[in-house]
Amino acid sequence: MVVASGLYSGSGMVAEVHKVVRLELDTVYVMVPLEATYRGPDEGTAWAELGFKFVGSKGNIFYLNVDDNCGALPQPLIDAGNVYAGASVQGNVCKSVPSDQVAGGTWIVFTVDDPDDSETFFRVS
User: Less Cβ crowding at N or C end of the chain, within 10 Å?
Assistant: First the structure.
């Protein structure tokens, strides 16, 4: 799993792509581009087999879910499709987060089947 360096505020990009999305006051979109290489047998689907959450600088956890998302993303990970062993996919994931919890926050990537034992942490800089 490769997470691009730096913090990407997706608010402007998402708003440009999807004009209907409205954010709550003092909330921003935090978007991160990812590259995932499938190492399992047969085939895999990154957006279905990986889970993502953002831990804010105050310790609050913000899960990616269908009820609270960024709307239409540029190059969303969900569009990456299935891959066979050794192949990679690229795409963006995004979450709306209170603006005072972004700096110093952490993205966590985990496998959906085993979330407690598979978490990988990526610090927001």
Answer: C
74 closest CA partner among 20, 11, 13: 13
Question: Digits of tens for pLDDT over the chain (125 positions)?
Answer: 444 444 445 455 544 544 444 556 688 888 888 888 888 888 888 888 888 888 999 999 988 765 566 777 888 888 988 999 889 999 988 888 888 999 899 888 888 877 566 666 666 54
**Alpha carbon of residue 64 to chain centroid:** 7
| Residue 82, φ and ψ in degrees, nearest 5 | -85, 155
CA–centroid distance for 39 within its chain: 20
Q: Quote the tokens at residue 49.
A: 């087999």
C-alpha to C-alpha distances, 110 to 17, 49, 52, 75, 77, nearest whole angstrom: 28, 9, 6, 21, 15
Tell me which residue of 122, 112, 99 sits closest to 30, measured CA to CA: 99
